[in-house]
Design brief:
The complex is a heterodimer. By secondary structure, chain A is an alpha/beta fold. Chain A has twelve helices and 17 strands. Chain B is globular.
Chain lengths: 432, 813
């Protein structure tokens, strides 16, 4: 006799039978049998996450991991500056960020093996290597799966839109999809699409519309029963509560922020996106994803960095200061990530190419220790030298702060229990 | 009782007899059929054996495992040693086993050869199956790319030579101990006598253990010479209908090898049930019934997975078939399955429901008020069939399927395909579908296409995707419904595809030449005549081989032409079935194999007979899919109501009732546009064109994107998203589509000017949007809303708004 391999040892395939039990019942049985790893998620140190993604592959050398003593072809054309953490230097464009470095955990040993944009992006949004067999959910969707909505706000919001396909629900149901603003908060007259009642429809008329709609829906609801119907219903309910909650709608109103603060963040894409992200988190959103700039600098990296980094520097430093002043930094985790870093040597076009072997990410707040540099790249920023930080461990640490145990298994189609992160470990030195 | 005819690789060897001998007690119902599996026994060498499984089938469709109760008699007992149901060789020769049960008798031939000779231990034939069965080479254990705890095996055994090397040569002397085989780390870990992260995998002195010891005692040899390949694996019985929880059925698994021998591999196969909730299977291959339902029980051995279909019914369930009419073969085959499951189909849907359903499904539009009246007043009993015929002749039917094909062919602008060739590609497709070109011809032309992406636009297929392996994967997924991606890196764990199959199929696409045309936007696709695909393990050049088919002669030929001719033909068993399944899924929201592009052994069709028959007819119709659509839409099954009865309320896979289906993005937008009397403008199309007609996957609007229109970025059937989301609800409630269109169309204003009463207008709005009149209750509710208002216009607009926001409007039912 040999013991039957446990369920999760197999990539189980097939179907939950057409007869007998519904899927939720079936999953409950599964849970009762303890065959899949199940833990209840409880809010952790980070009540919300602001996930700032720098698409294109941000050069670590020209941002958070300068190598001032490396030969010029590695060092690159830019200088570095001291920060308020003695011994930690940043790129010369990160002047304001340098003054909040004591709040940040700068991880300089991030590493994975995917040098193509989409594959690297997949890693950083899902915590998984891409698989041809399965679509993995993004961290934001997992958070939506694990926690209920607060104050009628969607748990997972993308500014301005879902940035790529990996920021979606993967194998999870569509009800865990992000809510996309649909327009850029930096644009003039920014409003979130469809949140306001249309012209000519006041609250009274909207109430009448809802009355009539209920009358029409009643007939169908009495006749038909289906999960798909309930799903549509649930989104209408969520829409109603958002539309009719002054507080929820107000969360998207960036103009309610004082002028002085808006100037502090900067009245540009970076400033507006980061400020709105803070506003949403404060109002109850749990995971806000935003992108800034384009960092695929194969040519003239000097010009590219000088063009894009200053605005980001201002906005990011303002965000950290702002959160800190409000006493919210302790429960808001801010993360800067990119799909990979860039090649150690400057190339023939004065740029740098894709380099996933080592690059930098930044974490701050929400239970992350401030004022540290975690891990180290070698002298030419080409390989991790200390504490190589894998995607799995990085994601597991973020989940840990959120209060999610990352080896919990979620149910993928075909009855496959899949861990939120496959084999990640919490990096304790990162935690406050 | 109807016996399923199976065209699967497993032999359906029912040996039935109606000879009734003797008398039976009244309490025990007598079986109508007795089956003995396997249908013949061949024993070769001393260690060979064969277990028999005997199954009785009763007139009510139930089956019973009678292996223990049946009486087995050997014609010549000297040849065979019989231990319960297992036959062992004793002496060479031929004889027969006679099986008797319940008054029925069956005989199967038995042949014994080399009865006293032992066969040498083989690494591939004996040892490798142990790793699979014990789970050693799974992805979560030593099969992981980096192995586990320092020891790696190839995933599901795709690289036996590598595994042999790692066991015997890597960390030499550590894993095996030839002097003291029992103290080899390999076996000590496996039986848990030393700490092992994977725990104890099997018992000391058990069969698996003894196999490893025998191999070690023999000096852990690699296999010399050509090793026989497993040609097929048979799982018996091929199906069962079990009566109540706890009922059991034994399985037996037999592998057939390329040297003509076979083996009973029941103890080396890995068993899985697709639905443990209905039937669980023990590691030894005993199925036990659980809750009512269906399960596909699979056995995996070597690279083969085979399945058997189990139905579990509640004990003593009473059932009367309601004797409903069958419109055509579709209904007959659906009913056959429902009878086995003891499920009654729903009632026929109302004329109103049918009218709306047929319009939306076939033409992608809603019936107008005039069309509604005409159909409802028609008293011809054949009017539903006539409506289907009418709709099939409409241009909207063509447009619907051009769109669906454009998704499969990924027609969109990309970095390699600019707008102009994309448009030509789309026009090429439209031309084929509009002219009802047989589907096999169209696909052959597409896959073998050569020339400029302007002059012969079908060649854009090879510009949309240029990576050889990805092209091969796409072709398999779109035209055969198979996802062979897994086999790029290891043998497919739940299907038959090996890495050899994968790379041999990819070899058809390794000689696609591409060069710049005169116009810089044009690319010429040609046969370069050179270029090979190599196997990543060992670097062998792979000869082109049809997926699941022969290795054709491609010397001096265009490989794509050879492949296209086979792929889109009756020789390819998957082509017609796959297209039939895609067509079916369009009309039922779910394929007979679901998802339609996930055909694999472990995801069997819910009704294989139906799928086979649809495919057979489709082939017979010379791949005219319009005829297939007609068969489907005129069946009673398509015309069932969504309302369920007690017996079918929990059925969601056997098409015993209609299901609610959301309208897809394009159809929803077109419907809103149609009922509000407004027009849309899309890129490249005249004002008033429908969203269904948009050529480019990358042309989109906020509405279409939010409601899940396919961007055609991949061939996956999942590109079209039918799931609701928050933005959709907000958009319909507050967005500019519904609100502005009601204003722009001025329908209510016009009707009020025509002096129509609010009641008449409400009636028309209902007919336009929901294809029905308002109920009395609805009328009363709306009346009370209207009552307090001086100006009926805003109220009527709100009614219109509510109808467009209603669930009933956005679902096909």
């Amino acid at each position: 006799m040999f013991s039957r391999p446990s369920r999760r040892d197999f990539l189980q395939v097939g179907f939950v039978g057409g007869l007998g039990l519904t899927l939720p019942q079936f999953l409950r049985i599964q849970e009762a049998q303890g065959a899949i790893k199940q833990y209840e998620s409880k809010e952790g140190t980070a009540k919300s996450v602001i996930f700032i993604f720098m698409p294109g592959g941000m050069a670590h050398q020209e941002t958070f991991d300068p190598k001032p003593y490396a030969p010029i072809e590695y060092r690159g054309p830019m200088n570095s500056i001291e920060t308020n953490v003695p011994g930690t230097r940043l790129n010369e464009m990160l002047k304001q960020t340098a003054q909040v470095a004591d709040k940040l955990a700068i991880c300089r040993s991030m590493t994975h093996g995917e040098a193509a944009h989409e594959r690297g992006t997949h890693n950083m949004f899902t915590g998984y290597r891409p698989s041809p067999a399965l679509q993995f959910p993004s961290m934001g969707s997992v958070v939506t799966h694990e926690f209920p909505s607060k104050n009628n706000l969607p748990q997972y919001v993308c500014i301005p839109n879902q940035p790529n396909e990996y920021a979606g629900t993967g194998y999870l149901s569509s009800s865990y999809a992000p809510f996309s603003l649909g327009s850029d908060p930096a644009s003039k007259g920014f409003t979130v699409k469809d949140l306001k009642l249309p012209g000519g429809v006041n609250d009274n008329r909207f109430t009448r519309r809802r009355t009539v709609l209920a009358a029409v829906n009643d007939h169908f609801a009495a006749k038909e029963k289906a999960d798909s119907l309930d799903a549509v219903d649930s989104f209408y309910q969520r829409a109603y509560s958002m539309v009719s909650s002054q507080q929820a709608r107000e969360a998207f109103n960036i103009n309610a922020e004082p002028d002085k603060l808006r100037d502090e963040y900067g009245r540009n894409t970076a400033g507006a996106r980061l400020l709105l992200a803070r506003r949403l988190c404060e109002a109850g959103a749990r995971f806000v994803t935003l992108t800034y700039g384009g960092w695929d600098m194969h040519d003239n990296i000097n010009r590219g960095i000088r063009g894009q980094l200053p605005a980001f520097d201002q906005a990011f430093a303002a965000l950290i200061r702002d959160l800190d002043r409000r006493g919210k930094l302790k429960d808001t985790l801010v993360c800067i990530a990119s799909e990979f870093g860039r090649t150690p040597k400057i190339n023939g076009n004065a740029g740098r190419d894709h380099w996933p072997k080592v690059f930098s990410v930044v974490l701050a707040g929400g239970g992350i220790k401030g004022g540290i540099v975690y891990g180290k790249s070698n002298s030419t920023a080409s390989e991790p030298e200390e504490d190589a930080l894998t995607v799995e461990d990085w994601a597991t640490t973020i989940y840990k702060c959120l209060g999610i145990t990352a080896d919990k298994e979620l149910m993928a189609p075909g009855d496959r229990p899949i861990e939120i992160v496959n084999g990640g470990k919490v990096r304790k030195p990162l935690l406050a | 009782m109807i016996i399923a005819s199976r065209s699967r690789r497993t032999l359906w060897a029912t040996l039935s007899t109606l000879l009734l001998t003797g008398t039976l007690s009244a309490a025990e119902p007598s079986p109508s059929e007795l089956s003995v599996y396997p249908p013949d026994v061949r024993l070769n060498t001393l260690r060979d054996r064969q277990s028999l499984v005997i199954q009785a089938r009763y007139p009510d469709g139930l089956t019973r495992d009678v292996t223990a109760q049946a009486k087995l008699t050997l014609a010549n007992p000297a040849l065979i040693k019989m231990e319960q149901n297992v036959l062992h060789p004793a002496a060479d020769g031929k004889t027969e086993v006679t099986v008797e049960f319940g008054g029925l008798t069956q005989k199967i031939p038995v042949e014994v050869a080399a009865a006293t000779a032992d066969r040498p231990i083989s690494f591939q034939l004996d040892v490798m199956p142990v790793f699979m069965r014990s789970g050693c080479n799974m992805g979560s254990c030593h099969g992981a790319a980096r192995g586990k705890d320092g020891f790696r095996l190839s995933l599901f055994g795709f690289d036996p030579n590598g595994d042999h090397h790692r066991l015997t040569r890597e960390i030499s002397g550590r894993r095996i101990n030839l002097a003291l085989p029992h103290e080899s780390l390999l076996v000590e870990k496996a039986i848990g006598s030393v700490p092992h992260s994977g725990g104890k995998r099997f018992e000391k002195d058990g069969e698996l253990y003894n196999t490893l010891i025998r191999w070690l005692e023999a000096g852990a040899p690699p296999d010399a010479g050509e090793v026989p390949k497993v040609l097929s694996v048979e799982l018996y019985p091929p199906g069962a209908v079990l009566d109540g929880q706890g009922t059991q059925q034994k399985l037996t698994v037999r592998a057939k090898y390329s040297d003509g021998t076979d083996r009973d591999v029941t103890s080396q196969a890995l068993f899985l049930s697709s639905n443990d909730n209905s039937a669980v299977v023990s590691p030894d291959g005993i199925v036990e019934a659980q809750n009512r339902g269906e399960a596909f029980v699979m056995a995996r051995f070597e690279t083969h997975t085979v399945g058997s279909h189990f139905i579990v019914l509640p004990k003593g369930l009473q059932f009367t078939w309601p004797d409903v009419a069958a419109n055509n073969y579709v209904d007959e085959l659906i009913y056959n399955k429902l009878k086995k499951l003891r499920i009654q189909p729903s009632e026929l849907c109302s004329d109103e429901a049918f009218l709306r359903r047929a319009y939306l499904d076939i033409a992608g539009t809603l019936p107008t008020v005039e069309e509604y009246s005409r159909f409802m007043q028609d008293s011809d009993p054949q009017k539903r069939d006539r409506l289907v015929d009418e709709l099939l002749e409409r241009k909207e039917f063509v447009e619907m399927w051009v769109m669906k094909w454009a998704e499969l062919l990924q027609i969109r602008t990309t970095r390699q395909v600019s707008y102009k060739p994309m448009l030509r590609y789309y026009n090429w497709l439209q031309d084929k579908v509009a002219n009802n070109v047989p589907m096999d011809k169209m696909v052959q032309e597409l896959l073998a296409s050569k020339g400029g992406t302007f002059s012969n636009a079908a060649t854009n297929y090879y510009q949309t995707e240029t990576a050889t392996l990805k092209v091969a994967e796409n072709v398999a997924q779109v035209f055969m419904g198979m996802r062979i991606q897994c086999a790029q890196c290891h043998n497919h764990p739940f299907d038959r595809w090996t890495m050899d199959d994968y790379y041999s199929f990819a070899a058809f696409f390794s000689q696609i030449g591409r060069k710049r045309g005169e116009d810089p936007r044009e690319v010429i696709i040609f046969n370069s005549g050179g270029g090979e695909v190599k196997h990543p393990v060992g670097g062998r050049v792979m000869p082109p081989k049809f997926l699941g088919g022969a290795t054709p002669d491609v010397a001096g030929k265009d490989r794509r032409e050879v492949m296209a001719k086979w792929l889109a033909s009756a020789e390819n068993p998957y082509f017609a079935k796959n297209l039939a399944n895609i067509v079916w899924a369009h009309f039922f929201g779910k394929g007979i194999i679901n998802e339609v592009d996930d055909v694999r052994v472990s995801n069997p069709p819910v009704n294989p007979e139906l799928l086979d028959e649809l495919a057979r007819r489709f082939t017979e119709y010379n791949y005219d899919f319009k005829k297939l659509v007609r068969d489907i839409c005129t069946s009673r099954t398509y015309q069932l109501a969504t309302q369920t009865n007690e017996s079918n309320e929990s059925d969601d896979r056997n098409f015993s009732h209609a299901t609610l289906r959301r309208l897809r993005a394009e159809v929803l937008l077109d419907s809103i546009t149609q009922v509000t009397d407004t027009k849309n403008k899309f890129r490249g199309l005249p004002l008033g064109a429908r969203a269904v007609q948009i050529a480019d996957g990358n042309t989109s609007t906020y509405f279409l994107k939010t409601f899940g229109r396919a961007s055609r970025g991949s061939v996956c059937a999942c590109e079209v998203k039918m799931e609701p989301n928050l933005s959709q609800a907000l958009h319909l409630l507050n967005g500019d589509t519904v609100n502005s269109k009601i204003q722009q169309g001025k329908l209510i204003e016009r009707r009020l000017n025509e002096k129509k009463t609010p009641q008449e207008i409400i009636d028309e709005l209902y007919l336009r949007t929901l294809t029905r009149h308002p109920t009395d209750k609805e009328k009363a509710a709306l009346e009370s809303v209207l009552a307090g208002e001086k100006d009926p216009k805003p109220v009527l607009e709100d009614v219109f708004w509510a109808l467009l926001n209603s669930r009933e409007f956005s679902f096909n039912h």
